[in-house]
Write a structure and sequence with these properties.
globular; alpha+beta; 152 residues; 4 helices; single chain; Aminopeptidase
């Protein structure tokens, strides 16, 4: 990772919402996801769902004043302890592959330790580059778990 002016902080769902939506849609509308976030109401509602709850916890990685990394999740109480469940994690597409995601994840882990949280839980798709990123950063696959959905 090159030297640059990087900063890390928790995001405020009210004052940071527009930059969250901007980064989120720019990353997930591009390869390899190609999500369609062209409906601004749907995007706003989704970001509100992730950031506007009592236990929501959002992080940002900044280069200067520009948001380049994003983690949206929530604190979840579980029988084995309290954990951070990441719903969305990304780094600006043109900044990927430079160690910024690993740096960002380590800063998140440091902050979670200050809250006495020692687990991050997330889901990703096995055939996307994110899977290898998470494995490289020490995440283990929960082989007993399967994701299910039903459309109707």
């Amino acid at each position: 990772m090159e030297d640059r002016e990087l900063s890390f902080r928790r995001l405020d769902p009210a004052s940071d919402k527009e930059i969250i939506k901007e980064l989120f849609s720019s990353v997930f509308c591009a390869a390899p996801w190609y999500d369609d976030w062209s409906d601004p109401v749907q995007l706003d509602s989704y970001i509100t769902d992730l950031t506007g709850q009592d236990r929501s916890l959002s992080y940002g990685l900044f280069e200067g004043d520009e948001l380049i990394g994003l983690a949206l999740g929530n604190i979840r109480h579980w029988y084995s302890g309290t954990e951070y469940m990441i719903d969305e994690f990304c780094v600006r597409t043109d900044r990927q592959g430079r160690g910024l995601g690993s740096f960002f994840m380590s800063k998140i882990e440091d902050d979670l330790r200050t809250m006495d949280l020692h687990c991050i839980y997330l889901q990703t798709e096995r055939d996307f580059p994110a899977f290898d990123f998470y494995k490289k950063n020490g995440f283990s696959e929960v082989e007993e778990t399967v994701a299910l959905y039903k459309t109707f």
